[in-house]
Amino acid sequence: MLPNRSVRALLPRRSAAATADPSAGFGASLHPAVASSPGRDAAGAESSIVDSAVYRDGRRVASPATLAQALDCLPEPGSMAWIGMYRPTDAQLNAAAEQFGLHELAVEDAIVAHQRPKLERYGDTLFVVLRAARYVDESERVDFGEVHVFVGPTFVLTVRHSESPDLSAVRDRMESEPDLLRLGPEAVLYAILDAVVDGYAPVVAGLQNDIDEIETEVFSGDPRVSRRIYELSREVIEFQRAAKPLLTVLSGLSSGFAKYRTDDELQRYLRDVTDHATTVVEQVDSFRQLLGNILTVNATLVSQMQNEEMRNLSRASIEQNEEIKRISAWAAILFAPTLIGTVYGMNFDTMPELHWAAGYPMALLMMVMTCAGLYAIFRRRGWL
């Protein structure tokens, strides 16, 4: 565990460090409003606090209304403050940072938000960024949240920028297990990590169900499936960005077990969280690969469907050409007797064939022979 020293004892040392090196402690130029009033009470921060409690030996002993009151309780042996803030303003977070002596770089990250999951240590204070995930059944999408956790020797300060994770459930769990809560701020950090990782399980199940539905749609020929594959791939990538860096955070905590004398029972709990997080990351990696394969199969099926459509169009065009050839052949055959009949139907006086005795039979014979000849030609060429 982290050494059990009070925050009051830490504040003077940070002030001295800030005087020697302006970049090393809180109160540098990044937060001039805080630096200009080091002794004021953080009254403005209380409006963003959703829960504030002081614990001693694993049990709640006070619910202070202000941060200053919470700090007043900490010199007692075995005491720990757990403050939860929800969407604080810059001024509110700066006020809380002044009270707890937080590093300005960590405070800046908490203000800006939209950080990747990470673990950083500033002196005796850990700064942890976690991204929670929640599967929404109604819209079949994944909502992502973000929580920043400051873990000091005798305090835990959580800053949430979204509804998830539900830290009230974490607090209820810890208060129902005083033996675990007695292990100190690192036990609270473990509980938050556990809640975030456990929250990934419904997301994994929801994504798996979506992928199963997409596989069915792909082979049923649904034209809208390509868009759904793309949207789901984006969610899986975003989920991967939330879950995969968590392994680095847990690895960083594990590497400090010996140095910071972390309790053996807490080490086992954290290793269990690491196992669950590893399983989630492996599943998400497989989802991304599977969606890539599904997208490839869908592209192949779409290409096959397009080729089939092209073949059908070509077949229809060929059949249409055959019909046109047959119609044209019969039109040519019928045109021949029409032409002969038209010529001899002009009734000019100087047409000797009109007065021949064999003129009529000869005209009929010419029509029959012309039609028969044209029929034979078209038949030989496959038009008929």
UniProtKB/TrEMBL annotation:
<comment type="similarity">
    <text>Belongs to the CorA metal ion transporter (MIT) (TC 1.A.35) family.</text>
</comment>
<dbReference type="InterPro" id="IPR004488">
    <property type="entry name" value="Mg/Co-transport_prot_CorA"/>
</dbReference>
<comment type="function">
    <text>Mediates influx of magnesium ions. Alternates between open and closed states. Activated by low cytoplasmic Mg(2+) levels. Inactive when cytoplasmic Mg(2+) levels are high.</text>
</comment>
<dbReference type="Pfam" id="PF01544">
    <property type="entry name" value="CorA"/>
</dbReference>
<dbReference type="GO" id="GO:0050897">
    <property type="term" value="F:cobalt ion binding"/>
</dbReference>
<protein>
    <recommendedName>
        <fullName>Magnesium transport protein CorA</fullName>
    </recommendedName>
</protein>
<dbReference type="GO" id="GO:0015087">
    <property type="term" value="F:cobalt ion transmembrane transporter activity"/>
</dbReference>
<dbReference type="InterPro" id="IPR002523">
    <property type="entry name" value="MgTranspt_CorA/ZnTranspt_ZntB"/>
</dbReference>
<dbReference type="GO" id="GO:0015095">
    <property type="term" value="F:magnesium ion transmembrane transporter activity"/>
</dbReference>
<keyword id="KW-0813">Transport</keyword>
<keyword id="KW-1003">Cell membrane</keyword>
<dbReference type="InterPro" id="IPR045861">
    <property type="entry name" value="CorA_cytoplasmic_dom"/>
</dbReference>
<dbReference type="GO" id="GO:0005886">
    <property type="term" value="C:plasma membrane"/>
</dbReference>
<feature type="transmembrane region" description="Helical">
    <location>
        <begin position="358"/>
        <end position="378"/>
    </location>
</feature>
<dbReference type="InterPro" id="IPR045863">
    <property type="entry name" value="CorA_TM1_TM2"/>
</dbReference>
<feature type="transmembrane region" description="Helical">
    <location>
        <begin position="327"/>
        <end position="346"/>
    </location>
</feature>
<keyword id="KW-1133">Transmembrane helix</keyword>
<keyword id="KW-0406">Ion transport</keyword>
<dbReference type="GO" id="GO:0000287">
    <property type="term" value="F:magnesium ion binding"/>
</dbReference>
<keyword id="KW-0472">Membrane</keyword>
<keyword id="KW-0812">Transmembrane</keyword>
<keyword id="KW-0460">Magnesium</keyword>
